[in-house]
Amino acid sequence: MLVLGIETSCDETGIALYDTERGLLADALHSQIDLHVEYGGVVPELASRDHIRKTLPMIRQLMAEADIDKDAIDGIAYTAGPGLIGALLVGASLGRSLAMAWNVPAVGVHHMEGHLLAPMLEDNPPAFPFVALLVSGGHTQLVEVKQLGDYTLLGESLDDAAGEAFDKAAKMMGLPYPGGPQIARLAKDGVEGRFDFPRPMVNRPGLDFSFSGLKTFTKNTIAQCQRDQLLNEQTKADIARAFEEAVVSTLTIKCKRALKQTGLKRLVIAGGVSANQRLRESLETMTAAQQSQVYYARPEYCTDNGAMIALAGALRLEAGHVEPLEVKVRPRWPLEELEQLA
Ligand code: KG4
Ligand code: ZN
């Protein structure tokens, strides 16, 4: 089954062609970062307008480059939520219209389901069941994944998402959006141990997270260094290092706890923050010591992309998922409300 995937939930237009037998055939990504950079964050109306300009030409180009005719397409998958409503509506209305014109089924994919299945695009895909750590700009969640569509929330952030914390910390240091890769790059030159940042909520039982205290701690540390006239490039790198270390060790402690609580041996990490090298290394070490295994996608499939949406849609359509023809998007959409498929 060959599925065309369309991702337009935020500031990235992603298009892909995924075949259940042959795997990922082609994908393309257009990032709107340049469009939003002067505002320090995503401007929803600008995002929607850019998706309108880019989506259809990108589909045409990708199909031409991959030499795929419309008659070869068996289904269309588009992101139906969660995300920015205007941006979602662009992909949803285009996806539905193409499906109607080509007389194939369409499926509205949950963006976070796309993320958590993305490691299945790789050569050594994780088998169900597993624990998933979803860490993006909008979500920090630990989920027990029994099978496709069967998700139980184990814990989540009570305030800021992990990616959001990276973005805000970067902004405080005068670094551009998105801040995660910027902090990670800066942290490479940082000296370990110069600053000791708190690990929020690790001493409390349970699997919830909180990152707002860490944000305040970062803000206060920067202010103190400024007062002491110490805020040079090295100090910034040392702060970035301590911040990254605190987020990574907090996430690692909670992942270890989730594996223990569920008795599962496979951990999947997904979402933009799962591209973080230090997080991957820390989870490799932790899972090896637990006789468990961690799975992640290559960096370009950790952040938003069309491939994960095409994959999730293809797995759903293949499992018999059907839905009404209406164009429906859900800016807020709990993962646990998804339809379970055998
Ligand atoms: O999944 P994603 O592309 O978009 C959302 O659905 O939110 O995640 C974007 C988030 C941003 O907050 C970005 O700063 C963060 O992922 N991110 C990273 C890294 N790459 C992206 N955070 C830490 N380290 C990275 N290497
Ligand atoms: Zn995302």
What report would you give on this structure?
The protein has helices at 33-36, 44-65, 85-102, 111-117, 162-172, 179-187, 212-227, 233-262, 277-289, 307-318; strands at residues 2-7, 12-19, 23-31, 75-81, 106-110, 130-135, 140-147, 150-156, 266-270, 293-295. It is of the alpha/beta class. The strands form two sheets. It has a five-stranded mixed sheet with strand order 3-2-1-4-5, sandwiched between helices. Strands 8-7-6-9-10 form a five-stranded mixed sheet, with helices on both faces. Helix 5 runs parallel beside helix 7, helix 6 crosses helix 8 and helix 8 runs parallel beside helix 9 (277-289).
Give the structure's gist in a few sentences.
The chain is α/β, with parallel strands linked by helices. Helices cover 42% and strands 19% of the residues.
Q: What amount of the residues lies in strands?
A: 15-25%
> How many individual β-strands?
10
Helices, by number, come to 10
**What structural category do the secondary elements indicate?**
alpha/beta
Arithmetic mean pLDDT: 97
- Order of strands, widest sheet: 3-2-1-4-5
Order of helices and strands: EEEHHEHEHEEEHHHHEHEH
Bound molecule types = 5'-O-[(R)-(carboxyoxy)(hydroxy)phosphoryl]adenosine, zinc ion
Portion of residues in helices? Answer: 40-55%
Using only C-alpha atoms, the radius of gyration works out to 20 Å
Q: Shape from CA axes?
A: globular
Low-confidence parts: none
What is the distance, rounded to the nearest whole angstrom, between the alpha carbons of the first and last residues? 18 Å
Describe the sheet with the most strands. Answer: 5 strands, mixed
